[in-house]
Hints:
- The chain is α+β, with helices and mostly antiparallel strands.
- The chain has two domains: 5-88, Sandwich (ATP Synthase, domain 1); 91-134.
- The protein is built from two helices and eight strands.
- The model has no long low-confidence stretch (mean pLDDT 93).
Amino acid sequence: MENNIQFELVSPEEKLVSQPVHMAVIPGDEGEFGVLAGHASLVASLRPGVVELYEQAGGEARKIFIAGGFADVSAEQCTVLAEEAVLVSDLDQTKIEQKIADLNEDLGIAEEAADKARIEKRLVLLKAKLSAVTGKLAA
């Protein structure tokens, strides 16, 4: 465990992850950043995107979608507090695409600025989920 960092991922519903990892890649507001053991301390705001957890160097990543939040990083530990978190493998591309289509329709008929803003915020989150599933940027 000497080359690992303790990683915690917590959402309002549950603690999704609590384990040592070799590296975590996290979607910061200003771009993705990697966290290894010995990382400088920082607190970062997170955007909707995918957290990638590598249990060993060169291994496959465990991918978890987060809907934004905060990361608290020290030399020994990284804690992500996410507004929402779900395994990418549990996301359903067809359902997400349908929700996007429905919201685009709602946006077209919304009249109040507050309604439009609420719909646009939900669209941003759903497009980030779609990108997580497909590995491509959503239009």
